[in-house]
Design brief:
Keywords: ATP-binding, Hydrolase, Nodulation, Nucleotide-binding, Transport. The chain is α/β, with parallel strands linked by helices. The protein contains 9 helices and 10 strands. Helix 3 crosses helix 4. It is globular. Bound molecules: adenosine-5'-triphosphate.
């Protein structure tokens, strides 16, 4: 039997005036799948994510999560979804721990103390637990934004460059954690990255965007074979150079 997708995007389009940032893209994400969104700067990755999160309204097309239409079941859907990105803002005068409590309260979570302890441990933030957010390094801040996303125990996680400012050790741990969450709780993850090795290592499938259009879709191996290149990095360079 085919499992229904947790996310289904049909002919999704976003125009900013005359400019088309996302051009009628369609794809699905299965439960427990890690889907990588790849593409050169300006390809439309962030715009796509923002539509999926209900932060900007699509010009046309449809987004369904858990079989429900986002446009008409926003609250219900967004309760089960979370995201992390470096451009989200948070109260900088509050400590790491206080920030997590704020999120937990906003979402009306129960068992907050356990959840906060749990996430602080998972993301190895014990030492910065009582540090105010303003004083965090960029990698520590990235971990805090990830912690906020994990805290609500979402079914779908959208991550915009989750490991961008992390050192290789922490980045490795975060990737391991994401894979473990997917394994243990069936979490589905859609993420962007400019790190090709990470894409190859993490993604069950990759969607390659160029100028708002899907130009390739499949496993890293399939995409590399289709383009007849040595690895994903070479495919990326080929596509990116075509779009300039
Ligand atoms: N609010 C906006 N108004 C006008 N154009 C926009 C707006 N937001 C994004 N764009 C344009 O849409 C295109 C896609 O941008 P987007 O941020 O989605 O790209 P991206 O794939 O996330 O790129 P990057 O890798 O640089 O993060 C870009 O050309 C961008 O300039």
């Amino acid at each position: 039997m085919m499992t229904p997708p947790v996310l289904s995007v049909t002919k999704l389009r976003k125009q900013f005036g005359e400019f088309t940032a996302v051009q009628d893209i369609s794809f699905v994400m299965k439960p427990g799948e890690i889907l990588g969104l790849l593409g050169p700067n300006g390809a439309g990755k962030t715009t796509t994510m923002q539509m999926l999160l209900g932060l900007i309204t699509p010009t046309s097309g449809s987004i369904q999560m858990f079989g429900l239409e986002l446009a008409s079941h926003r609250e219900e859907i967004l309760q089960q979804v979370n995201f992390s990105s470096t451009y989200i803002s948070m109260p900088l005068a509050l400590t790491v721990e206080e920030n997590l409590w704020v999120v937990a309260r906003l979402y009306g979570l129960t068992d907050i103390e356990r959840r906060v302890d749990d996430i602080v441990k998972k993301l190895e933030m014990e030492e910065i637990r009582r540090k105010v957010a303003r004083k965090l390094s960029s990698g520590q801040m990235t971990r805090l934004t990830l912690a906020k996303a994990f805290l609500t125990e979402p079914k779908i996680l959208f991550l915009d460059e989750p490991t961008a400012s992390l050192d290789p050790d922490i980045a490795h741990k975060i990737r391991a954690l994401l894979k473990e969450e997917r394994r243990s709780s069936g979490l589905s993850i859609l993420y962007t990255s400019h790190n090709m090795r990470e894409m190859e290592d993490m993604s069950d499938r990759i969607i390659f965007l160029q100028r708002g259009t899907i130009v390739a879709e499949g496993t890293a191996r399939e995409i590399v074979a289709r383009f007849g290149e040595a690895d994903l990095e070479e495919v990326f360079l080929k596509i990116a150079r075509e779009s300039r």
